[in-house]
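agent> Task received from the user: take the single chain below, predict its 3D structure, and emit structure tokens. No templates, no multimer pairing.
agent> Plan: (1) validate residues, (2) run structure prediction, (3) serialize to tokens, (4) report one or two observations.
agent> Step 1 OK, no nonstandard residues flagged.
tool_call: predict_structure(input=
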Amino acid sequence: MIAHLNGRLIEKSPTELVIECGGIGYFVKISLHTFSQLPADEAIKIYTQFIVREDAQLLYGFADKVERDMFNLLISVSGIGPNTAILMLSSLTPSEVANAIGSEDVSTIQSVKGIGLKTAQRVIVDLKDKMLKFGLSDDSGTISNNTIRFDALTALVSLGFDKKAAEKALNRIFNDQATVELLIKDALKVL
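)
tool_result: status=success, residues=191
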């Protein structure tokens, strides 16, 4: 599996890009969300998911691991293929998808082209329990896109702390320069 590409951006469009790594140009399909987060310079690192089908081998690219994780969850649902998942992530940010699933907002998921009522309901039923991974807060219904904060929250919950208490502790001590380790240590002092 190809987990990420780190190289030079050769071509880009809102739906695809070509990255040169070691003299090889990789064609990568992307969402509009990823396109909006691409850096202005040529040096690029993009997280990928390699999909092998009977008739094709496709590489999908994401600006961060959170979007890639959401993509993998979406394609695990019956009736959602890679192209539909990319379309969902182009129409909605990963946090909006997670928020819609967590709050059982069928109309938001159904607003994506190609997703009907039954598929939207199936997405919610299959993925609702997995939204903790995306920092879904039961209090406010907000989602954190910050991978460091998410990793710290996941670690605290896996250590046995209450999710709401861990979120409150992280909200009090969080700063953009913190590492996962520092956030966990500081949160343990507060909890």
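agent> Step 4: summary for the user.
Strands lie at 4-12, 16-21, 24-30, 43-52, 57-62.
agent> Done.
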